[in-house]
Design goal:
Helices cover about 75% and strands about 0% of the residues. It is an all-alpha fold. Helix 1 packs antiparallel against helix 2 and helix 7 packs across helix 8.
Length: about 170
């Protein structure tokens, strides 16, 4: 590995943090899991096989989240200001409210999906991973990842369509 762990931290910390925050929905827990991720990356550096480092770090982050979830087995409510900080810049108040509402609705729908389907949408659509990077991060083949993503998007469309029908 040509980069030091400090360089990796500087380059990928924000992406890892946003990813973990979207998984655990708690700011302080996401910060702790980021630290756990980079600690594990440092400790298991000898297991790094030379693949792209970003999916490798996301896989470590996901495993740290799963380990924490299994250990604590509790549900945490999403921090209210998360999407406001991400999307609220440069828009009028009305646009901000509409955007917050849309994002909250989509996140509610994503939370109803299976874990792998939710991961597929978050990694590919939200974090802009390639199919290969996202598949590597989840630990599935590229082909299966595409199936997961397709099915997840179909479920999201289906659920949103039913909600729209109920609102009319």
């Amino acid at each position: 590995m040509k980069q030091s762990i400090d360089d990796l931290y500087e380059e990928h910390m924000q992406d890892i943090f946003r990813y973990l925050l979207s998984l655990c929905r708690e700011h302080h827990l996401a910060e702790d899991l980021v630290q756990e991720t980079f600690l594990r990356a440092y400790l298991y550096l000898e297991n790094y096989r030379g693949e792209d480092v970003k999916p490798w770090l996301f896989r470590i982050a996901h495993n740290a989240f799963i380990d924490h979830y299994r250990k604590h087995k509790r549900t945490v409510v999403k921090e209210q200001g998360f999407f406001q900080r991400l999307f609220g810049k440069g828009h009028g108040t009305e646009q901000e409210v509409l955007l917050k509402t849309e994002v909250a609705e989509v996140m509610e729908v994503i939370n109803t999906l299976s874990e792998q389907q939710a991961q597929a949408i978050l990694l590919y659509d939200y974090h802009s991973f390639t199919y290969k990077e996202a598949a590597d991060a989840i630990g599935v083949t590229d082909t299966y990842f595409k199936v997961l993503l397709y099915r997840a998007r179909q479920k999201v469309r289906s659920i949103q369509g039913k909600e729209n029908e109920n609102n009319e």
